[in-house]
Amino acid sequence: MIIHIDSLRSLLDRPDESNSIFVKLTEKNPEAALDIRKQFLAAYANDDLKAQTIEESAEATLKGLRSGISMINLIGYFGMGSSAFAIVTIQMMLVNSKTREIGVMRAIGAKRKDILMVFILQGMIIGAIGAGAGTGIGLAYTFST
Amino acid sequence: MSDTVLELQNVSRIFGEGDTQVKALDNVSLSIRRGEFVLIVGSSGSGKSTLLNMIGLLDKPTSGKVILDGKETTALNDGQVSQYRNEKLGFVFQFANLLPDLTVLENVMLPQQIQGSSEDIRQNATDLLIKVGLEDQINKRSNKISGGQAQRAAIARGLVNRPTIVLADEPTGNLDSVTAGKIVKLAKTMAKELNQTFIIVTHDRHQFPDVDRVITIKDGKAFSGEETTMEITA
Ligand SMILES: Nc1ncnc2c1ncn2[C@@H]1O[C@H](COP(=O)(O)OP(=O)(O)OP(=O)(O)O)[C@@H](O)[C@H]1O
Ligand SMILES: [Mg+2]
Fold first, then answer.
1. Phi then psi dihedrals of residue B173, to 5 deg
2. Chain B contact for A99, CB < 8 A?
3. B71-72 and B221-224 strand pairing
4. What is the ipTM of this complex?
5. Is B99 in Cβ contact with A101 (below 8 Å)?
6. What is the per-residue pLDDT across A45-98, written as a single tens digit (0 to 9) for each?
7. Element housing B168 (H / E)
8. What's the B25 CA to ligand 2 centre distance in angstroms?
9. Count of CB atoms within 10 A of residue B196's CB?
10. Scanning every residue of chain B, which has its alpha carbon at the shortest distance from the alpha carbon of A104?
11. CATH class name, domain B36-61+78-224
C-alpha cells in the first residue's frame, strides 16, 4: 500500500512529524548502505532531503550521549579537585595550629620526614573516608530513584 | 673520654639581611663539662634562646662550630641531627609542651619510642615519673594536670633517654615562685643523682641560687660570670 505522506500525517494526527523513512537492507554490508544513499540522493537531487546510514545516525545520538557523559565527568573532576583542595586547606590549618606540638616532636628527635608522614597519612585517611562515604551515598541515591 | 660534653667555637647567628640584619649571637665560644649545672642569663632579646637553639641543634649557626660529645654537628643532615637530638639532648621549655592528646606516661615514653629503644620503655618512664613525684598522675591526659606537674613531667621526659645535656629555656617562667622553687630543686636533685649536665636559660637569676656556673649574654656576646648591672635591672 502506498499513501501520500500528508495523508498519513493527518490520518495519524501527527501533522509535522513522521518525517523520515527507515530503509532496511537484506544484506549486512555497510558498503551497500553507502551505495543506496548515493543512488537515493542522485534520484532526488532537487529536493531538500537528507540521507544517512544507520551508523551515521547512531553516531549523532552517541555524540549527544558522549557530551553528556563528559559533562558528568567534568562535574566529577571538579568535585574531586575541590575535595582535594579542601583536604589540603584543612591539613594546612592543622599544621599551623600544631606548630608547638611539631616543635616538641622535633626537639624529642622526630625527623622532618616522620612528621610530614603523619600529616600526609592523616590527609589520606580523611580523603579515603570522604571517598568511601561519597561512593556509598551516591550509590544509595542512584538505586533509590 | 674527654670531660667536655659541649664546645662552641666562634659561633655567630645572623637573622635577616641588609638593613634589617640582627646579629643575635656574636662570636660566642664556650665549653661545658660533664655534670655541670650551667645558668645562662641576660636581658630580653640578648640572644639566650638563640644560643640554646644552637646548642640544641634546633638552628644552625651562620658561622662557627658546635661540637657535641666530641662531634662537629653543623654538617649533619636532618636525619642525623634528629637522632642526635633524640639521644644526646633533652629539652624542657617554658610551657611544659607535653603533647596534649597523650597521657603523662605516654609523653615520657615518647623519646625512647622514637629512638626505638629495646629497653622496657614503660618501666623507665614510670620510674622517672615516680622520681619527679608524679606517681598519681601517670595515666592522666597531659592537658588535665597543673603547670607545675606538667613541668615535672617535662623534666622526666627530658631525662628519659639519659641525654648528654638537658636544655631548658625559662623552665620556671610560667610558674608561681613557690612551684618554680620546687622545680629548680628537682632539677638540681636530678643533676646530682644522675651526674646530668644541665644548661638552663633564665631571666631570673634568683630562682637558681646555687649553680656551678653562670654565663651572661649581652648583645649576642657571652661573658663568664654574672654582670652586676644586670642584677639591678632584674
Ligand atoms: N627567627 C628570628 N628571626 C629574626 N630575628 C630573630 C629571630 N629569633 C631571634 N631574633 C632576634 O635575635 C635577638 C635575640 O633573640 P633571642 O630570642 O635569642 O632573645 P632572648 O635572650 O631569648 O630574649 P627573651 O629573654 O625575651 O626570651 C633578638 O633581637 C631577636 O629579635
Ligand atoms: Mg628567649
1. -60, -25
2. no
3. unpaired
4. 0.78
5. yes
6. 777 777 777 777 888 888 888 888 999 999 989 988 998 899 889 889 988 888
7. strand B165-169
8. 13
9. 21
10. B97
11. alpha beta
